[in-house]
Amino acid sequence: QHEVGKPLRNCYSLPGLDFTYGMYLHKRDGGVAEAIGHWDAVKPRNTKKIMPRDFLTMNRGAVDAGCTTAREFGLYYKFMDIRCKDENRFLTGWVSKIPAGMTFGRPARPSTPIYDIIQHRYKEMWMERQRARTRVQKIEKKKLDQVRGNRTTYLRTHPPPVKEESFWHPARFEKVEPHLSTFPDPEAREKALSA
């Protein structure tokens, strides 16, 4: 019978106090002293990586060689074993050409001169740009507001010269004296014509 209000008791017997839980590594576990004083460097393994077969290149070569049946293709695959190229091979060659003192990343932005900040130089530069932009906008607005002149407005401002009318008379009437003279004397006539 179970005890009321209590969990079931564990029936397994635990090992003694001298038992260590976990896995003990005899070769590499030297404790804290070895961890602090010795850097455990892993030596790289020089294992040759076997690349998979490059069937695209082999199929192309088999067609060029004149293979038509599956048996001929199989024989071609057996004698012409072409493997894929290692992509990391080019990367390692490129990395080896990098100079030793080269640093990567973007260069830091030059520091802002504090003297210009104290004197509000950036505000003045911004105000100058705003004023220049306002001047340009006013000039463009004046150009848009001006009405384009047509021929009528041009003739109003620049009237053409008036042609002097010359009355033409036949030559036989040039030397004819007037038949009627209303002036009392020739002096009055000259005075009236000169006025």
Describe this structure in words.
- This protein has 195 residues and is mainly alpha-helical.
- Among the domains are: 50-89, no CATH class; 114-157.
- The protein has helices spanning 31-37, 55-65, 70-79, 88-96, 114-118, 121-145, 151-157, 186-194.
Give the tally of β-strands: 0
Helices, by number, come to 8
Summing up helix and strand content along with how strands pair, one would put the structural category as mainly alpha
The quaternary structure here is single chain
The end-to-end distance, rounded to whole angstroms, is 157 Å
Helicity, as a percent range: 40-55%
Unreliable segments of 5+ consecutive residues: none
**What is the H/E string?**
HHHHHHHH
Biggest sheet, open or closed, and with what strands and sense?
none
Q: What would you report as the Rg, rounded to the nearest angstrom? A: 57 Å
What value does the average pLDDT take?
81
Query: Tell me, what's the shape?
Result: elongated
**Proportion in β-strands:** under 5%
InterPro entries: CFAP77
Organism: Oxyruncus cristatus (sharpbill)
Pfam family, one: CFAP77
Protein name: CFA77 protein
In short:
With 195 residues, the chain is mainly alpha-helical. The protein is built from eight helices and no strands. The chain starts with 30 loop residues before the first helix and ends with a helix.
Question: What features would you highlight for this structure?
Answer:
CFAP77; 195 residues; single chain; elongated; 8 helices; 43% helix; CFA77 protein; mainly alpha
